[in-house]
């Protein structure tokens, strides 16, 4: 193997060139500008780490050098293309070849890295749109129909679920109830989802024939709910993240899609350079299998040492998502369109709020990055609930503004369904079969209790305290021709699905009787 020297610049530049090219590719895809101070900070950190690794490389035996070079090559290919089924096997094969033939590929990797870096800076390669609006104009609305607003708020726990928590959650439940009742909504206090994961909850609620085809990043299959709106004569307008494409599931007039994980959406909010550097670095790092593995090992070790509940054992918490910021941008587009809403138009939106991370406070100001929390963050459940409640209040304020816009536009003659897909999932233990003996009443409530409220033209405010699944509430409302409130008594005791370790729903369980 050709032995690189300390003053040999080209081989030494291989790692920073390839990692830098990967970073630029990541930024371009995330719609995040490359030439910013926080990116310069990340670049300096990459160069510093690569310098340390370079000195380790120089003093390593030939076999270790072969493995390091093979690892760098597979890292770059897998990071940017992800076409290698077994990365470890590929590293072994390439390292063996390099060792056997006594060659080094660092010079070639350096040249290749700089070429990719240059082409990425010139804009070659795809990017995730912050906001994409498509207009098909395929449907004509029936003008005698009141406009419909249907919003699915991801991870929004129900009012009864909030009242089972601490003082601040009880206060939030009262704020939610008051806001909806003042606007003439009927609230279903004990509405619940039969599933605690979106990929099963929403197909169940919208009546998808084959839930197995409802997957992240895929086109949603046809749903009886959206088809029912179109069959009723509504011109359908969809507002969604790129998590699932609902526009493929029905005839739509317009389709607005925001990048759920596009870090570029964070630029609309004030953050320090260091905070932005941390956000981008986490997002970039979490795409690397080695980083994910190191994080998993550290958190698993913390779980064992601290005897922390499995779901909340995170001593190292990645800040790699700005999803609520992207969702807030989607809300702004929806608000714009509601100001010109016409009879016969139906607005359907799936928004990742108040879904983690909890980046907003009650006034919708961005919290300091160090205080961002997730549903599975380390620390007491009550601390996570407080962070969640702040973002839920922000969500409530923004949704009520949408309702007020539509009410002002229509003189109160509108239909609205505001719901969650499942609970907040702020737990001690996931509601799985594996943890069935450890999970508590609070875990079940936080997983399955969810928001559900309906507004009808001329309808009076009311509260239902009967426990009913959202799937039945929506089905009953659809069957009525979107004309009357769901009032039928539940046919069975409240039951939810517990998944196995792979999150496939396998066993039905009773909800707590006194929630």
Task: Give your account of this protein's structure.
Helix content is 44%, strand content 13%. It has 515 residues and is of the alpha/beta class. α2 (14-29) runs antiparallel to α3, α3 crosses α11 and α13 packs parallel to α14. The model has no long low-confidence stretch (mean pLDDT 88).
Structural class: alpha/beta
Q: Which word captures the global form?
A: globular
Round the mean pLDDT to the nearest integer and report it: 88
Radius of gyration, in angstroms, nearest whole number: 26 Å
Percentage of residues assigned to helices: 40-55%
Number of distinct helices: 16
Largest sheet: 9 strands, mixed
Strand order of the largest sheet: 1-8-6-9-2-10-11-3-12
State the separation between the terminal residues, measured CA to CA. Answer: 69 Å
Tell me what portion of residues adopts beta-strand conformation.
Answer: 5-15%
Q: Please report the total strand number as a whole number.
A: 15
Low-confidence stretches: none
Blueprint (SSEs and pairs):
Blueprint: H1 9-12, H2 14-29, H3 37-58, H4 62-80, H5 87-101, H6 106-121, E1 131-135, E2 148-153, H7 159-163, H8 167-182, E3 186-188, E4 191-192, H9 198-206, E5 218-219, H10 224-232, E6 235-241, E7 244-245, E8 252-258, H11 273-285, H12 289-306, H13 323-338, E9 345-351, H14 381-410, E10 415-420, H15 441-448, E11 452-455, E12 462-464, E13 468-469, H16 470-479, E14 495-499, E15 505-510
Parallel strand pairs: 2-9, 2-10, 3-12, 4-13, 5-7, 6-8, 6-9
Antiparallel strand pairs: 1-8, 3-11, 10-11, 14-15
